[in-house]
Sequence to fold (577 residues):
Amino acid sequence: MRTGAARFDFPGFKVMTFLCLFILYAPLVIVMIYSFNDSRSITTWGGFSLRWYVDVFTGPDSAKFKSAAFNSFSIALIAATVATAIATSAALAMVRGGRFKLRTATFGVINLPILVPEIVTAVAILIFFNTIGFTRGYMTILVAHIAFCIPFAYLPISARMQGIEGVYEQAAMDLYADRKQAFRRVLLPMMMPGIFSGFLLAFIISLDDFIITNFVKGAGVETLPTAIFGSVKQGIRPNIMAISTMLLAFSTVIVTLSWLVSRIDRTK
Amino acid sequence: MAGGAASGGSATSDAYAPARGWLLMPAWLVLGIVVVAPVFLMLIYSFLTKEFRGGVIWEFSLEAYDQFFFDRGLFGDEPPTIQWAYIQIFWRSIWQATLATVLALLIGFPTAYFIATRPVQQRTVWVFLITIPYWVNLLIRTVSMRFILRDQGPLNDFLQWIGVIAEPLTIINTNIGVQLGLFYSYLPFMVLPLYAAIERYNFALSEAAADLYAPRRKILTRVVLPAVKPGVIAGCILVFVPSLGSFLAPDLLGGARNFMIGSLIDEQFRGSAGNWPFGAAAAMILLTLVLMVLMVLARQQARLEKGAG
Fold:
């Protein structure tokens, strides 16, 4: 059948695929190249240099970027951890909890942040914090991030759990393991790849978020995306390209890691 | 679950049923309080009176919706006529999102088809290549697009260098700039579900059609396409919905004249010129629109699946 599929190839489709990849990567690659530009102008090439990378860490904006980076990474770390725990617990009930009345509704609620346009979620969360009189700042960003990271952590975790047959836990319990032991010693280790990629994806989603963060952040508290957005509004400067390239590289590493981990279990 | 075919499978598929409530509690609490309840709160806010420095006064008012749909003159005392300004913004957004979806489908389908017809080992690598840009920060991708499309940017430089154009094209701050931005932002969303559908497609069907002397083009349009329609619908939803409410592409690649719903809503919550009830109303209208699209497509999806047996 596989050899059969290749028979129905269209030569033009290969060209389209390369065009698609070119469109996806060209802008990123060009920004990467220009981040090494020695010139102060973003239009002319002035030779290779790392000066804008140095500028990110020591230049006039470095204090702003440092605090933004701290906020971004600490929020992403906490939000992804909490969201992963919540998603794992929910996946247990959804995948191993039998049929129940609210199953469809629960599924809808979990995936709501993915289905609804982000700006709608952003407005809703802002209104919520305003109504309960919560001052906008680090905490409001964190709470919002925990909420919208849940579906992204849930997807790989539940997919992984569905792939694990019940026989393994059954075997453990036949050998007198109790429910808790069967979970801790059998199911949890087998689910680890799913949990790990769920965590990483939630981490990236939190790190990347702009719209919701921009609504709930309040004055003075910035994350990397909101800081970058603020700078870009005054024009794209080379230091923005350097910081973008670093974030880009970081995301790529994380996603590659997540991909490699998710492949581990395929070999079984 | 379908995985319950093995003897032990069904035995543990409800192993956690007794603890179900406790296990779901955290997700329900967090999402219920931070996302679901606030959406209802937003509905209420859209019927409140605006406070002049942002926020609301808790007094019932239809003013937000009235302002959206009707024009009552500068002082609000003229007979109401239809207010086209906001409807136009919504119309432009729908139009832009539709174009972005069609463009993504035109590039995305051949790509997904090509990947799905590769040998299994190669497929994961191709899919991975499509996935990476999806996970790269959307803001950074939009900024890159702005950098490329500038009047003195690399694209114009290149086009002038090969002699296609004499003067640089103005793309930023036009509808075309926004359009390219939307298409670029959500292209991976199209390829992935399409690929998933085509990969599951049984090419024996194509063999059968070929045996009956169907030309390859016909096989594609009459056999493959109907079979993978659920994937096409999923891909279209995933491009259309975020495009419709998108903020970054119209903000960074458009200008004041290429406003989309996202920018309109954002503006209502920024600074003292804002109008929270109006912003909430606009967000409610957007949400209603999205839910309508989702419902129509979900119904079609269900019909297709039933038809497939």
Remarks:
- The CA atoms of residues 241 and 290 of chain B lie 6 Å apart.
- The beta strands of chain B are 48-50, 56-60, 70-71, 81-82.
- DSSP finds 14 helices and four strands in chain B.
